[in-house]
Amino acid sequence: MAAGTGKIALVTGATGGVGGAVAEALLRHGWRVRALTRRAVPHRPGIEWIKGDAMNPADMLRAAEGVDVLFHGANPPGYRNWRGLAIPMLHHAMAAAKTSGARLIYPGSVYPYGPDAWPVLGEQSPQHPTTRKGRIRMEMEWMLAAEAKQGLRYLTLRAGDYFGPHAPSSWVSMIMLQGGKRLSRIQTPERQGVRRAWAYLPDIGETIARLAAMEAGLPPAETLHFGGHALADRQMAEAVSRAYGGNLPVRRFPWALVYAAAPFNTTMREVLEMRYLWRETITLDNRRLLAVLGEEPHTPLDEAVAAAVAGLRASKER
């Protein structure tokens, strides 16, 4: 563990995948970490848990008092009522960061981009999303840019599809690993020839911890892209198969069943809206991140997938 920095970070969403990975990385780098939680305090040593709700501006202000960095990883589960929850929470996080003088760090995604920006996304690529979730994500990024003119310091790190030991809602966890169930086959949704970006959560956490350590030297409003694992065709599915001993067959995902269930199931409708991510090549240009950090934290694919499998199995046993 690194020597203490004397700095304090507030993490919202620390009970989730990305927030948890960021909190753990900050602890490794010697930060004092606070985390806002609505539920009973989880068992994660080293974190100062504060009871409160990101939907409550007073709770956010109280939790952010005296912090140097505020990582805003709170996200509505399953994208339910995203506009009604995600946008107010971001408003409250921005207000708390401005009041405390902290830099707000926000995990972005590829959602705000449309066909005119594909296949390789740069930080300044045009944002013309074609989906509802993409438009909401774009609006949230616009909120950050607008508040920067009023004194907010922020850093957005955009990345591809998350996966890792504590990412229960990711495609790898839900679709390929079936939530940790015993598998007889692996289903993969992509069109042949498509290349897409995957972001291993511990690598994201490490990247954000390194950026947080140098945030005072960054521009007041900064956006960087995380390249991650840019995989084509069935490379992710084959890595999952290797994690299970290499004996599981890889099959195409049954999209027809999703279409049939969509009229009756909110999650299936949300999945269909984002199907384009599996039909088009979309990767991220990380050259600016490399120029800032010198390297991008990168866990080998097989090691990362094995950790994701082990994490899901452990969560099923608890």
How does this model look, in words?
- With 318 residues, the chain is of the alpha/beta class.
- The protein has one domain: NAD(P)-binding Rossmann-like Domain (Rossmann fold, 3-Layer(aba) Sandwich).
- It has twelve helices and 14 strands.
- It has helices at residues 17-28, 57-64, 82-100, 132-148, 171-176, 201-213, 235-243, 255-261, 266-273, 276-279, 287-293, 301-317; strands spanning 8-12, 32-37, 47-51, 69-72, 103-108, 120-121, 153-158, 161-163, 186-188, 195-200, 221-225, 229-232, 250-252, 283-284.
- The longest helix is centred in the first third of the chain and has 19 residues, at 82-100.
- It is globular.
- The model has no long low-confidence stretch (mean pLDDT 91).
How many domain regions? Answer: 1
SS summary, helix count: 12
Strand order of the largest sheet: 3-2-1-4-5-7-11
> Structural class of the secondary structure composition?
alpha/beta
**Oligomeric grouping of the chains:** single chain
* Share of residues in helices: 25-40%
CATH-derived architecture? 3-Layer(aba) Sandwich
Please tell me what the overall shape is. globular
CATH fold-type name: Rossmann fold
Q: Beta fraction of the residues?
A: 15-25%
Give the total of beta strands.
14
Q: What is the arithmetic mean of pLDDT?
A: 91
What is the string of SSEs from the N terminus onward? EHEEHEHEEHEEHEEHEEHEHHHEHH
Would you identify the regions where 5 or more consecutive residues have pLDDT less than 50?
A: none
| Rg over C-alpha atoms, rounded to the nearest angstrom | 19 Å
CATH class (first level) name: Alpha Beta
GO molecular function, one term: aldehyde dehydrogenase (NAD+) activity
Organism: Acidisoma silvae
Domain NAD-dependent epimerase/dehydratase: 9-214
Protein name: NAD-dependent epimerase/dehydratase family protein
